């Protein structure tokens, strides 16, 4: 292996420091004894205990999880349907318009999306709450899902679907028994993407939420405006921990699967 | 007792299994298939042969139901198949890429079509084991497609498409992905399986040797048209056009003006050279342009002047040594280069002539095929 030069070491350190120093500070101070965020007064886990007793935060966390699970499921179903039609059906009236429009919310500023949804909800007369946040999140998350799923749909050999039809499967059976299992990894990553998008959205949720339905990012944001408390540091540390564990385990699983597959393919060619 | 020759296309009473009637297929401005009429009979091993882009795959995809003709009718056993969707046709296809279901085992791949017919479990199991046995895949039933080799995958694809016992099996370049040795073995295996199952096979290929080996009849296609439909030996020995003669195997083409007396044709082909003579049953008007097609193996090469109808002198320009045979490229004083083939019955050290030697080439009156296009 090539040795790292001084230049490489410096750029590596600077880059990673830029990315992770703020988070490291946050994690460190979550174990601070003192109530003052900027003064170190010894190690303690008491803020984690405090957090567990803070009903408002727990409620907000529950709402956020609820919204994220429902949103990502809905967005995955809708996004997969949209991707399937746009990739597989090459000609239907308005196809170009649809395929352009499916990506529009990706570049649309959140504020505009949130505002327009708010106007819609008021116009239709829906009470704002968990339902409206779910609808709002699904609106933009499904676009991301459809992008992820369509890249997989484009990549795989379409004759596999033709083969299923040829062997007597109906179009629905073909989708369920052949297409879906093949694109499953993309569908799952689409779901996870939608889940994280929904989990950390602040802007759109602020527009769509009602008084009884505060999500965690909204709760944190409003709490911080009254002053940063170590409780919030603790909460953020827990979230960072969860995300890290999730990402690392997912990449380990997929890497191991890829190695296993490569090994089996080599074995197959030898027989 | 002499065996009856399989030639349903010569029998007036025989009903074709597939009938293309004036079929045209256009993609936008591009005409992929141009007014094709074609009959294919039951139990035939029919090859569609042509360069890429000649429309052979489109023709096959129309049989499978993935494309519909723009004009004309395709009949399967007397029924127009246009309104029948692909999943309800008694036709199965083996794809060029094999198109195996990557998430299913070999066994499940083969059983896929049978399960769609809602057959009971016992029937499916029996049929799948039959197919596994036919394609010698018993050992691999539980493996996934990525756990077996290319040749085995090809056999899984074949077993899967045969499992439903289709009236017609379509094979799209089935051997394209295999190396040469495996391909040759598999060709004979395919013929064997075709004979055992009695299924009608239609194979698409751009490999003329493959078409000649496996097929009972070959259709040579070019730019959406059928150039000739005949048995492999007819295609080779009696091509109907310069295109077909040139596409199948190696050939010398000499252009000239016709001068006919009875069934003998004198062809003036070059200034100051004696006319070449050939036999034909067609009629040519005086001075009509015609082409002589002569296969290299029918051209004799010798150091001394032979006696016979068509004798020309030239110089050896090039020698392609292929082990069992050698092809000599002989340059005539007129600038024509004629290929002559000779079996290497002697050791190479005792070869009678080499580069730049003066040699005589000759062929008989019946060796050349006279073509008018």
From TrEMBL, chain A:
The chain crosses the membrane at residues 7-31, 60-86, 98-124, 130-154, 175-197, 232-253. GO terms for biological process: transmembrane transport. InterPro entries: Bact_Polyamine_Transport, MetI-like, MetI-like_sf. It comes from the Bacteria. One of its GO terms (cellular component) is plasma membrane. Keywords: Cell membrane, Membrane, Transmembrane, Transmembrane helix, Transport. Residues 61-253 form the ABC transmembrane type-1 domain. It is found in: Cell membrane. Coiled coil: none annotated. It is a multi-pass membrane protein. It holds the Pfam family BPD_transp_1. The keyword Hydrolase does not apply. Belongs to the binding-protein-dependent transport system permease family. CysTW subfamily. This is Spermidine/putrescine ABC transporter permease. It comes from Pseudooceanicola atlanticus.
From TrEMBL, chain B:
One of its GO terms (molecular function) is ATP binding. It catalyses: ATP + H2O + polyamine-[polyamine-binding protein]Side 1 = ADP + phosphate + polyamineSide 2 + [polyamine-binding protein]Side 1. Keywords: ATP-binding, Cell inner membrane, Cell membrane, Membrane, Nucleotide-binding, Translocase, Transport. Pfam families: ABC_tran (PF00005), TOBE_2 (PF08402). GO terms for biological process: putrescine transport. InterPro entries: AAA+_ATPase, ABC_SmlMolc_Importer, ABC_transporter-like_ATP-bd, ABC_transporter-like_CS, Mo/tungstate-bd_C_term_dom, P-loop_NTPase, PotA-like, Transp-assoc_OB_typ2. Its EC number is 7.6.2.11. One of its GO terms (cellular component) is ATP-binding cassette (ABC) transporter complex. Residues 18-248 form the ABC transporter domain. Gene3D superfamilies: 2.40.50.100, P-loop containing nucleotide triphosphate hydrolases (3.40.50.300). It is an enzyme of class 7 (translocase). The keyword Membrane applies. Belongs to the ABC transporter superfamily. Spermidine/putrescine importer (TC 3.A.1.11.1) family. Part of the ABC transporter complex PotABCD involved in spermidine/putrescine import. Responsible for energy coupling to the transport system. The complex is composed of two ATP-binding proteins (PotA), two transmembrane proteins (PotB and PotC) and a solute-binding protein (PotD). This is Spermidine/putrescine import ATP-binding protein PotA. It comes from Pseudooceanicola atlanticus.
């Amino acid at each position: 292996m090539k040795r790292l030069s001084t230049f490489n070491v410096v750029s590596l350190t600077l880059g990673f420091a830029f990315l992770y120093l703020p988070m490291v500070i946050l994690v460190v101070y979550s174990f601070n004894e003192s109530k003052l965020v900027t003064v170190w007064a010894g190690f303690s886990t008491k803020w984690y205990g405090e957090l567990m007793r803070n009903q408002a935060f727990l409620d907000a966390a529950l709402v956020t999880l609820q919204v994220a699970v429902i949103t990502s499921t809905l967005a995955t179903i809708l996004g997969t349907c949209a991707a399937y039609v746009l990739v597989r059906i090459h000609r239907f009236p308005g196809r170009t318009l649809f395929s352009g429009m499916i990506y529009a919310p990706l570049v649309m500023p959140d504020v505009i999306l949130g505002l327009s949804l708010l106007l819609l909800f008021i116009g239709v007369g829906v009470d704002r709450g968990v339902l409206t946040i779910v609808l709002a999140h699904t609106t933009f998350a499904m676009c991301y899902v459809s992008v992820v799923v369509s890249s997989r749909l484009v990549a795989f050999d379409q004759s596999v679907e033709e083969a299923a039809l040829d062997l007597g499967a109906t179009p629905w059976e073909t989708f369920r028994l052949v297409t879906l299992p093949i694109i499953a990894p993309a569908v799952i990553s689409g779901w996870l993407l939608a889940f994280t998008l929904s989990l950390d959205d602040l802007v759109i949720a602020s527009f769509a939420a009602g008084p009884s339905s505060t999500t965690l990012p909204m709760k944190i944001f409003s709490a911080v405006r009254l002053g940063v408390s170590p409780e919030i540091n603790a909460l953020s540390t827990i979230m960072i921990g969860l995300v890290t564990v999730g990402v690392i385990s997912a990449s380990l699983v997929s890497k191991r699967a890829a190695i296993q597959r490569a090994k089996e393919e080599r074995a197959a060619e030898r027989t | 007792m002499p065996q009856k020759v399989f030639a349903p296309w010569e029998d007036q009473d025989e009903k074709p299994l597939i009938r293309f009637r004036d079929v045209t297929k256009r993609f936008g401005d591009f005409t992929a298939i141009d007014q094709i009429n074609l009959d294919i009979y039951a139990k035939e091993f029919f090859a569609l042969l042509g360069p890429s882009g000649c429309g052979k795959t489109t023709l096959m995809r129309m049989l499978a139901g993935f494309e519909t003709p723009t004009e004309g009718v395709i009949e399967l056993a007397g029924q127009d198949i246009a309104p029948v969707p692909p999943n309800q046709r008694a036709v199965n296809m083996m794809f060029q890429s094999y198109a195996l279901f990557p998430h299913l085992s070999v066994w499940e791949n083969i059983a896929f079509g049978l399960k769609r017919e809602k057959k009971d479990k016992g029937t499916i199991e029996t049929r799948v084991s039959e197919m596994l046995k036919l394609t010698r895949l018993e050992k691999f039933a539980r493996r996934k497609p990525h756990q077996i080799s290319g040749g085995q995958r090809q056999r899984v694809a074949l077993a899967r498409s045969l499992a439903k016992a289709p009236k017609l099996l379509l094979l799209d370049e089935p051997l394209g992905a295999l190396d040469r040795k495996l391909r040759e073995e598999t060709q004979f295996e395919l013929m064997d399986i075709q004979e055992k199952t009695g299924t009608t096979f239609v194979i698409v290929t751009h490999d003329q040797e493959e078409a000649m080996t496996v097929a009972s009849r070959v259709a040579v296609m070019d730019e959406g048209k059928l150039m000739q439909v005949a048995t492999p030996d007819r295609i080779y020995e009696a091509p109907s056009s310069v295109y077909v003669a040139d596409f199948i195997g190696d050939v010398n083409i000499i252009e000239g003006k016709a001068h006919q007396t009875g069934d003998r044709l004198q062809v003036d082909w070059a200034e100051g050279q004696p006319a070449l003579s050939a036999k034909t049953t067609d009629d040519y008007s005086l001075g009509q342009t015609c082409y002589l097609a002569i296969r290299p193996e029918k051209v004799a090469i010798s150091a001394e002047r032979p006696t016979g109808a068509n004798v020309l002198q030239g110089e050896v320009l090039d020698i392609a040594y292929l082990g069992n045979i050698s092809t000599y490229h002989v340059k005539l004083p007129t600038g024509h280069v004629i290929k002559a083939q000779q079996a290497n019955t002697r050791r190479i050290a005792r070869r009678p002539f080499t580069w730049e030697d003066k040699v005589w080439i000759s062929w008989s009156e019946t060796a050349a095929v006279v073509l008018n296009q």
